[in-house]
Structure formats: C-alpha cells, structure tokens
Amino acid sequence: MVSMTGEKTKAAIRKVARWRLSVQLLSLLVWLDPLMVRCHTVCAPVLHCYSCPLATFACPIGVLANFSAIHVIPFLALGTLAVAGALFGSFICGWTCPFGLLQDLLDRVPTPKFVLPNGVGYLRFLVLLGLVIVVPYLWGDGHALFFCRVCPAGALEAAVPNTVHTAIRGEAIVWPTITKSVILVVFVVLALFTWRPWCSALCPLGVIFSVCNGASLLVMRFHRRDCIECVDCRSLCHTGEDARVRVNQIRCIRCLECTRCRAVTVETAFGRMKDKG
Amino acid sequence: MKLLIRRALFFLLLSGGVAAVVYGARYHAAVVEEKREVEREILIPLAGFAPGTGFGMPGAPGLSDGMPPGNDQGFMKKKITQQVVVEKIVAEASLNREVSFGGVALAADGTLLQTYSGRPPSLCPT
Is B125 within a domain? Predict the structure, then answer.
C-alpha cells in the first residue's frame, strides 16, 4: 500500500472528519422512516430495532438472533453485513449508527471520564456467539438471554415508545422488561462517563464490522516515518490507543479523530487516495 | 503480498455478500405451516333415521362417499369449524418481517409454525 501523506489529502480527511456529527444526524433520516416506507424485509447495517415505531429497515442482529431461533440461515442479513463490512467496515459504527450517535451525544456532557480497557472489546465476540447465535439456537426466543430481550437499543427505540403509545391510546400498557430497562439505564449512565460503553464492550454488530476491517476497502494506516513520537495519538483516540502500536485496534469506529496526527491516515485497499496537491 | 491478500479478502467478502443477498432475496424460502379455522357444512342424520341397505358403503351402487348425491332427506345441515394446517412457502425477505413480531416459531418437530391467524400482532414478543 502506498503511503498517503500529502498535506492536501490530509487536510481533506480532517475536513471530512469534522462532518461526522452531521452525517450521523442526517443518517437518522434514513433509519427513522420519515416517509413511513417501512422496508422491514430488508436489513440495514446498523443497530436499530425494527420493532421501533420509526424504523425503516430490519435490524441485522435482530434478524440473526430470530433466524437462529427458528433454525434458518439468514442469507439476506449476512450478505448485507458482508457488503457493508467490505465497503465501509467500522465506518458504519462511527458515522451512521443511531445508538452510537446517542452515546456520542451523551459523551459530550461535561462529566469526569474514564477509559475502558481495550480488552473489553473482546466481550463482544461472546455476545455475538452466545446471545445472538447459541442461546437462540438452543433455547429459542423465549430465553431470558435471547439478545433482543437484553438489547438496550431495542429498549430505547421500541419498548419505551410502544409503552408510551399504548398508554396514549388508552390500551393495556405493556411495560418493558426489567432486564431490558436496567441495561438501558446502566448504559445511558455509563455513556456519560466513558466513551461509547455499549459499542466498546457488548455490541455484536460492532464486532462484526471490526472483523471486516481487516478486509474492508478503507483502512487506517500509521506511517512510522512521519511520527515525531509526540504520543498525541493516545489523547486523540477515544479508546486511548497508541497509534504507534496499533491503529486498527478492535474498538476503532473510524471516527478519524486520530487523523489529526500527521502519521495517521486513511487509505484504500487499491493504493493511495488521489492527492491533487 | 500482504496487500494482495487484503485485496483478495475484500473481493471475497464483497462478492460473497452480494451472492448471499441475491440468493436470499430471490431463491431462499422456508415452509411455514399456518393453522386456519375453516367453516364447513356437514349433514348429520336426524333422530330415528335409518339408512337404507348399502348406505355408507363406499363403492355401493348409486352411492358416493356414503351419501346419495342430492339426497339429504333424513339429514340436517350443521356448520362446524375445523382447524386445518396449510403449508405456505415464505420468502426470506417476508420471514425477516414475520420474525420481528414473533410471527413464526419453531415447533418441537422442527417445522416452522405461524403463531397467529388473521391480523399479525403489533408488538414484538420481547
């Protein structure tokens, strides 16, 4: 892979990085079904519960878990994740996920912050294999550890709105389960004190894209020859990772904050990005 | 070499994903059994009715399935509701939507059952 250190290209990447919040907010217009299209036969590559009254597409993790419960292979969901992972990898998490956006907004609240150890990212493999695949396959969707029964995104986007909706309509109120509600509250509170706790520690979708990063079109690169050993990359990265050691670490969501360091850049798998400078 | 492997993996993942989407959207389906309640009209013999010789014997002259055609004297009509199992082939895309509200469940014998009849439930089971 050819190095991309052209100053104009670097400036362009930094300019793009500043648009992250805007892109996240605009992507809500796609996921939150403003036109009431409701394509629940199609999966979106983000964690957004499709029991939500405002959900355009199906949640791929919900589909994986439910299909595992009925012993059917979900080709559509797997294919969607593979295509999205190949093209974008973890950019999906950092730039379009609605539950990630909520955590990013909570992270902006000025509270004392702490950094989770990088090893917690591996817990996500357990969640993916255990709660999304094995538990539903063996015990069906009635098990207390069936992923959708503990998903905080589902609690926030589906259970709470549906409870309010039934109350407004004067119907018998269906309360969210205690487990789901507690997990939601825990992660909302945690998000005030640490960066993206759900994404970092438990998100099964994030770990799929983390794995896809190894084969995705866009890749983060660290150029040692441009490093001046300032160690600024550690403070730039939300996960506290040292870019000199590992720029593509497992919890990376491609927020591009680290590209403010001159040694870190984005490249494609097909050579360097065009530098017009 | 590392770059070549990366490019190969990218193409493998992308083409595999596209193939899975095409297969899932166009060819993949599952058989789902739906239990439907069907209303039928049957004839039951009136009290004291004695069928003639040969009545009810399949293959007997002039008789069909135990009932003389067009002859319902001595019988009364009654409507009954019967539960029948209908097998449907459901495309994977439709199954995506069905599972979102718990519309399909796995039976103990491995078959897929539709959990509702008529209007689907509005809330998911979780």
Answer: no
Residue A92 lies in a domain: yes
B78 is a domain residue: yes
Closest CA to A190 of A178, A176, A179, A202: A202
Domain assignment present for residue A255? The answer is: no
- Give the residue from chain A lying closest to B25, CA to CA: A76
Closest residue in chain B to residue A181, using alpha carbons only: B126
Number of folded domains that form chain B: 1
Asked if B25 has any chain A CB less than 8 Å from its own CB, the reply is: yes
Asked whether the beta carbons of A200 and A241 are under 8 A apart, the reply is no
C-alpha A215/C-alpha B18 separation (Å) is 15
ipTM of the complex: 0.86
In our burial notation (b when 16+ CB lie closer than 10 A, e otherwise), range A230-265 reads eeebbebbbbbbebbeebbbbbbbbbbbbbebebbb
Q: Domain limits at B68?
A: 25-114
Is B3 a member of any domain?
Answer: no
Task: State the smallest CA–CA distance between residue B59 and chain A in angstroms.
Answer: 46
- A133 contacts chain B (CB < 8 A): no
In a domain, A219, yes or no: no
Q: pLDDT digit of tens for each residue in chain A (277 aa)?
A: 444 456 788 888 888 999 999 999 999 999 988 888 888 999 999 999 888 888 899 999 999 999 999 999 999 999 999 999 999 999 999 999 999 999 999 999 999 999 998 889 899 999 999 999 999 999 998 899 999 999 999 999 888 888 888 888 888 777 777 888 899 999 999 999 999 999 999 999 999 999 999 899 988 888 888 888 888 888 888 887 777 777 777 889 999 988 888 888 888 888 755 444 3
Cβ of A148 within 8 Å of Cβ of B126? The answer is yes
CA distance B46 to A268: 85
Q: How many domains, chain A?
A: 1
CB within 8 Å: A75 and B6: no
Contact A228, A188 (CB under 8 A): no
A245 falls within a domain: no
Domain that holds residue A65: 11-213
Q: Is B126 part of a structural domain of the chain?
A: no
CA distance B120 to chain A (A): 13
